[in-house]
Amino acid sequence: MSADREAILSRVRGALAPLHQRAALPDWDNELIHMRSLRGDVDAWTLFQNRMKLVNGLSLEGAPALVAWLAENNWTRGYCDPVLWPRLQAAFQSGFTVETTFDRTRIDDYQFGITRAAGAVAETGTLILTDGTTSSRLAALTPWAHIAVLERSDIYLDLQHAVTALANDPNIVFCTGPSKTADVEGILIEGVHGPGQQVALLI
Amino acid sequence: MKFQAIDQFAANLKPSTQAAVYDGSKKGYDARTKTLFDHFEDPNRLRRVAGEIKQHVVENLDTYLPQVEAKLQANGVIVHWAATAEAANQTVLDIMRARNAKKMVKSKTMVSEETELARFLDKNGVECVETDLGEFIIQIDGDHPSHLVKPIIHKNRRDIATSFEKHGLGAYNDDPQTITQRARVHLRKKYLEADVALTGANFISAESGRLVLVTNEGNSRFCLAAAKTHIAMVGIEKILPRDRDLALLLNLLARSGTGQQLTVYTEFITGPKSAAQPDGPEEMHVIFVDNGRTDVLASECRDILRCIRCGACLNVCPVYRQASGHAYRSVYPGPVGAVLTPLLAGKKFPEFADLPKASSLCGACNEVCPVNIPIPDLLLRLRNKGKEEHVPSPGTPPMGPWALLATQPTVWKSALVGGKIINHLPTKLLPIPALRAWENKHSLPEWKGGDFRKWMRNRPSKPTTS
Ligand code: SF4
């Protein structure tokens, strides 16, 4: 609709023509959005862990801890990114069924999905997923538990740093805790359309 | 007596609905204040800067719109323009027909509420499913949202359980966990069957063409993981100049709306999926929608175009809390709606001219607004417009006697003293309908007029120091 394009742009120009002066673009300093009394002396991973707990997320260190947690919840069927699987496989005892291709015709068969995180934001407890690092968008979203595998060096301190370092990637998702709603009488319920458990696994 | 439309709605509201709206909005406001002031040294500075950035965008849309269009195209996005609601809906339908697409999943977008897209598609044989839990419930009920971020703030769990039962989503059960679980199961199938996913955009960066979507439920993520075509309907005012401005606005949006530091999911989308990714859209369309925005831009009230739809002004507004969202009879309720609705209505302005008057101008909306919109000033400008266009104003008491009193000091003085008589009058019988209506719900305090003057006269001329 190029007629509509011209119509809109000419109306915009017409509406702005009478303005003697246009509002200038303010510059602002990163300090403006600095979150106070958060950082202390802790390292980025510890801060990330603390903040993730506040949004009902879970952080784990090492594959054995993950396997123990899955076993405890009796979640034995899942998906793992084929690139990660060789590094994690040894920790999974028998009794687990882990697939490395995700079949969208039976999404409810997967109780957990393991994919890579592109990074994390410490101050908000946020995991960063990208198309480039996520082997399947559906596998990172539809199972009840999503495990994002994170490297220590990929943790940004704050949102400002993470946003200005956004990858050149068509689909970047910041995940801050499990999927949730408060639509029904303001009561918090987790696991609406996405994972009811969001896990960060440091390896 | 005859009320203005909004007052009539408020008067007819069920007490249970009013209580639900009051509690829901108060909760939002309390959480907002806590997170903002806990986290930032001076949250008001953030609001001011964010307001300046958005005002700059609004006043420079003539440069930003072509700039963002070029960016999007360079990223592989197909850009469309729609001057009216009809054009926007038709563009969506044309895209779908060209692909022989019959099913759409839709995440919450206010601009598609404006254009009534779901109804339009339904009439044209396209299944269009709302996926946000609240919007889904609104859709099966044939209802309208009553809040910008909590669309079913006016419903309680029993209402919802009843409609789930009616629509075959299981036997009556009003446990919120069960309700959510049932919606989860039902909607999963819909996502996987859909040909097209429709979203809005919270922001779009002119620097990179990144389109930002925020949700808590993850419905827009699911839409963009399952469907092969992505259409985003975007109001022309959604632009931010630079990527770093996204960080500032994201820091404000969720804190202002729901008191969260960030919504659970913040998605940055620049185009179709990457080649190696098995899931997600192979093509992406952005439709820039005007639908009255250029009229707002040409008006004295263009500041309202800064709005980022956070809902904070609704939560804090004493009028919204009493009247609920449906009293505003449009997509945008609360203080933002009282400004935007009459303006977007174009020729139908008189129908909504009551909205700017339903405010005590207390200024709370301005104080909480993350982009610092001077809503009370804008309301005054619209009242003035109503007056100049001679829009009738039922229920407003005549101001003539007041003007007489206020301009004549001697008359004023004797009225103050004589006012004591009101303490002895049955005010319910006074022949002023507006006063009688007010008296139904309130009682007058005892008249003490004139005492201040006496106190002032007897006061020592200099403050005493001890
Ligand atoms: S006017 Fe301000 S407070 Fe109200 S919804 Fe818009 S951005 Fe939020």
Q: In percent, how helical is the residue content of chain A?
A: 10-25%
CATH class of chain A: Alpha Beta
Overall 3D geometry of chain A? globular
Q: Walk across the major sheet of chain B and give the strand order.
A: 1-10-7-4-2-3
Written overview of the protein:
- The complex is a heterodimer of chains A (203) and B (466).
- Chain A is of the alpha/beta class and 203 residues long.
- Chain A has one domain: 3-Layer(aba) Sandwich (Rossmann fold).
- Chain A contains five helices and twelve strands.
- A six-stranded parallel β-sheet of chain A has the order 1-12-7-4-2-3, sandwiched between helices.
- In chain A, helix 4 links the parallel strand 2 and strand 3.
- Chain A is globular.
- The mean pLDDT of chain A is 94.
- With 466 residues, chain B is α/β, with parallel strands linked by helices.
- Among the domains of chain B are: 252 residues, NagB/RpiA/CoA transferase-like (Rossmann fold, 3-Layer(aba) Sandwich), CATH 3.40.50.10420; 58 residues, no CATH class.
- Chain B has 23 helices and ten strands.
- In chain B, the strands form two sheets. A six-stranded parallel β-sheet of chain B has the order 1-10-7-4-2-3, with helices on both faces.
- In chain B, strand 5 and strand 6 form a beta hairpin.
- The longest helix of chain B is centred in the first third of the chain and has 25 residues.
- The N and C termini of chain B lie far apart (57 Å).
- The mean pLDDT of chain B is 90.
- Strand 9 of chain A pairs antiparallel with strand 9 of chain B, so a sheet runs across the interface.
